[in-house]
């Protein structure tokens, strides 16, 4: 079946929806192809047993790991993509993240643009995601043209006490920048939002933010349940002519003047590789042989700080972070990473991660525990890559910079003990934690070493853009969602010729 549009966007996550939002006022016919369906509001959406113990929302899609064994990644396929389950943290990358710099585990190459080049687009992204935050608290914050439009989400009393304890322990806690309407979120149910699906307007995700805005324009539409199989080009290979997708068992073909791939760093790379043809034998837009390479996934751990003499009464918890070790470790001098609160860890959530523990013990620990999420930079490596073999996705993740992450764990452990938490437990995440995947279609000035230019247009194909985390040249050590949105909005301006 044949369809025609002016612009086709593949994927409705942060990158795809932000691009559609930025182009919606052009009047051009924009069609978004999304493999998932709309996430429905059901009792399971705020049920910690259903979500964390029973895996109610998990995809059944298997990827192949480096060891050749299949695994279920932590990816979700719904309108809005993984952002439906995200923690709503909307950090700007620090100014230093755009510069080349040395880490314990190697050298970060830097970006072809500087922080100042992206700052206006960060501001536009914060506007559409209604980011709540505060200036002047975080010493690593980059310069801003204007203050946050919305005040920070308030600390609950238990978290305000933790903030004070951290100050006394010698670090500078700061309010997390959050895309959340906390009153609206709590009206639906008294839970945290971290890893809970958003079925309303409480969390400003890709669907409730930029996609909803875009779809208010009559020229923008979305096709759900549409799995894109490949992209076709003209004989020269310089222009994409059509996207071939499967819906309800029927193959469809849609043509357009501009195509944007925003299916996520793994799926976007896989699509480009599957679209190999005579003009692009190694994969579409892959003259550099960099499509699928430089896969990064952040080094992350969960840390539980437990105070047996003080109960944690927080409901949502996730309002606090500190970056004292982000740009410099007081011991080694190297960058280590970000420390931020997780959402409130209930006994049922803890039980899901400690299945052998009796429920009453998990509940007892959870009542006195504060969960933290530790993130360190994973460095780009061309041997860390996404491949497609016999139609299946293969993830060969070559992890890097783990010495820095171990140092971050030790520095954080020391801070927590000094702040009065005598018991500190740590669990480091592995390949299934794919929420910050990036780097497989890197952005750069040189077509020999990168896939897209600074406007996110592919070097090899003149009407093809990539507007998701695939393009990030480095992973930094904070949540990438706002950076992805800013780059996508910037790409939209380039497409419009602004």
Automatic annotation (TrEMBL):
- Give the UniProt keywords, A-Z: FAD, Flavoprotein, Oxidoreductase
The Glucose-methanol-choline oxidoreductase N-terminal domain sits at 188-299
Record's keyword annotation contains Flavoprotein: yes
User: Per its Swiss-Prot or TrEMBL entry, what cofactor is needed?
Assistant: FAD
* Pfam families reported for this sequence: GMC_oxred_C (PF05199), GMC_oxred_N (PF00732), NAD_binding_8 (PF13450)
Q: Extract one GO molecular function annotation from the record.
A: oxidoreductase activity, acting on CH-OH group of donors
Under the heading InterPro entries, the entry gives:
FAD/NAD-bd_sf, GMC_OxRdtase_N, GMC_OxRtase_C, P2Ox-like
Q: Which Gene3D superfamilies does the annotation name?
A: FAD/NAD(P)-binding domain (3.50.50.60)
Record domain Glucose-methanol-choline oxidoreductase C-terminal: where: 431-488
Kindly list any coiled-coil regions of this protein. none
Fetch the PANTHER family from UniProt: PYRANOSE 2-OXIDASE (PTHR42784)
**Family according to the record:** Belongs to the GMC oxidoreductase family.
Protein name per its UniProtKB record: GMC family oxidoreductase
């Amino acid at each position: 079946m044949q369809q025609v549009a002016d612009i086709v966007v593949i994927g409705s996550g942060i990158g795809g929806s932000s691009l559609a939002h930025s182009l919606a006022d052009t009047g051009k016919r924009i069609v978004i192809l999304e493999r998932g369906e709309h996430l429905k509001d059901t009792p399971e959406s705020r049920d910690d047993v259903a979500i964390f113990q029973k895996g109610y929302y998990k995809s059944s899609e298997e990827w192949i790991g480096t060891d050749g064994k299949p695994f279920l990644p932590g990816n979700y396929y719904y309108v809005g993509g993984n952002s439906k389950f995200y923690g709503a943290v909307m950090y700007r990358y620090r100014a230093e993240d755009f510069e080349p710099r040395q880490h314990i585990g190697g050298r970060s190459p830097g970006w072809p643009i500087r922080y100042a080049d992206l700052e206006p687009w960060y501001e536009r992204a914060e506007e559409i995601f209604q980011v709540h935050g505060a200036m002047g608290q975080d010493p690593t914050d980059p310069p801003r043209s204007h203050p946050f439009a919305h005040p920070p989400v308030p600390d609950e009393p238990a978290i305000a006490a933790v903030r004070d304890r951290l100050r006394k322990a010698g670090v500078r806690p700061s309010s997390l920048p959050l895309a959340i309407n906390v009153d609206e979120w709590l009206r639906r149910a008294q839970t945290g939002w971290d890893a809970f699906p958003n079925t309303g307007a409480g969390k400003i995700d890709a669907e409730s933010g930029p996609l909803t805005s875009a779809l208010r324009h009559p020229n923008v539409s979305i096709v759900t349940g549409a799995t894109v199989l490949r992209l076709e080009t003209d004989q020269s290979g310089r222009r994409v002519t059509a996207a071939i997708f499967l819906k309800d068992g029927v193959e469809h073909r849609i043509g357009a003047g501009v195509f944007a791939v925003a299916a996520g760093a793994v799926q976007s790379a896989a699509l480009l590789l599957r679209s190999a043809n005579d003009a692009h034998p190694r994969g579409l837009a892959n003259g550099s042989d960099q499509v699928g390479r430089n896969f990064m996934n952040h080094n992350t751990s969960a840390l539980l700080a437990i105070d047996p003499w003080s109960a944690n009464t927080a409901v949502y918890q996730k309002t606090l972070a500190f970056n004292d070790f982000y740009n410099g470790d007081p011991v080694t001098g190297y960058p280590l990473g970000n420390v931020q609160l997780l959402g409130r860890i209930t006994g049922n959530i803890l039980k899901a991660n400690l299945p052998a523990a009796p429920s009453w013990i998990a509940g007892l620990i959870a009542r006195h525990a504060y969960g933290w999420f530790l993130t360190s930079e994973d460095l780009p490596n061309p041997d860390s890559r996404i491949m497609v073999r016999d139609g299946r996705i293969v993830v060969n993740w070559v992890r890097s910079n783990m010495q820095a992450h171990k140092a971050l764990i030790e520095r954080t452990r020391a801070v927590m003990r000094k702040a009065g938490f005598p018991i500190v437990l740590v669990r480091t995440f592995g390949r299934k934690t794919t929420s910050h995947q990036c780097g497989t279609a890197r952005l750069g000035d040189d077509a020999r070493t990168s896939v897209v230019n600074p406007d996110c247009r592919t070097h090899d194909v003149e009407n093809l853009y990539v507007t998701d985390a695939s393009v990030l040249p480095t992973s930094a050590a904070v949540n990438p969602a706002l950076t992805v949105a800013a780059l996508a909005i910037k790409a939209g301006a380039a497409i419009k010729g602004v």
